């Protein structure tokens, strides 16, 4: 289920304390994303791997975010979600559609995930935690 609005949660994972802001992706909410950029160490950008028609907008929003000064040091983890669903694009296909290979000034990685089964979530969170610890 997509996020409607904004949610905040504190999580301790791999000896890293995360303050997680879950920001809804609806067009009416995107202008408010900037309010949460300050002191942001990592972005977990979740895309629906079955919503091929929305990947162009996701690409534009991601690349727009990465131009923001407050996010210059943030690492990027893309979660290609819904990998358990029929017709889902692979993480490699999502990477191509999002033009991740063009991101040169941020450390990034992409993970095949399923919020339903939990597949890939641990690997993605571990990578983010390790990136933050290594700074």
TrEMBL record:
Naming one, the record's GO cellular component terms include: Golgi apparatus
SMART domains annotated for this entry?
ARF
Compartments where found: Golgi apparatus
Record-listed GTP binding positions: 25, 81-84
User: What SUPFAM superfamilies does this protein map onto?
Assistant: P-loop containing nucleoside triphosphate hydrolases
Q: Which Gene3D superfamilies match?
A: P-loop containing nucleotide triphosphate hydrolases
Gene Ontology molecular function: GTP binding; GTPase activity; metal ion binding
Q: Which residues bind Mg(2+)?
A: 3
InterPro entries, per the entry: P-loop_NTPase (IPR027417), Small_GTP-bd (IPR005225), Small_GTPase_ARF (IPR024156), Small_GTPase_ARF/SAR (IPR006689)
A Gene Ontology biological process annotation? establishment of cell polarity
Q: Which keywords does the record carry?
A: ER-Golgi transport, Golgi apparatus, GTP-binding, Magnesium, Metal-binding, Nucleotide-binding, Protein transport, Transport
What does the record give as the function of this protein? GTP-binding protein that may be involved in protein trafficking. May modulate vesicle budding and uncoating within the Golgi apparatus.
UniProt lists the family membership as follows: Belongs to the small GTPase superfamily. Arf family. Belongs to the small GTPase superfamily. Rho family.
- This one is known as ADP-ribosylation factor, putative
Q: Give the species.
A: Entamoeba histolytica HM-1:IMSS-B
């Amino acid at each position: 289920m997509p996020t409607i609005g904004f949610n905040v949660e504190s999580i301790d994972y791999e000896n890293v304390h995360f303050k997680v802001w879950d920001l809804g992706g609806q067009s009416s909410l995107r202008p408010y994303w900037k309010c949460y950029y300050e002191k942001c160490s990592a972005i977990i950008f979740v895309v629906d791997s079955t919503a091929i028609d929305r990947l162009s907008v996701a690409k534009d929003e991601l690349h727009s975010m990465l131009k923001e000064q407050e996010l210059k040091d943030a690492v990027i983890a893309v979660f290609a979600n819904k990998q358990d669903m029929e017709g889902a694009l692979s993480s490699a296909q999502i990477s191509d559609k999002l033009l991740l290979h063009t991101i040169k000034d941020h450390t990034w990685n992409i993970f095949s995930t399923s919020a339903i089964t939990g597949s890939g979530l641990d690997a993605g969170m571990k990578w983010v935690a390790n990136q933050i610890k290594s700074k």
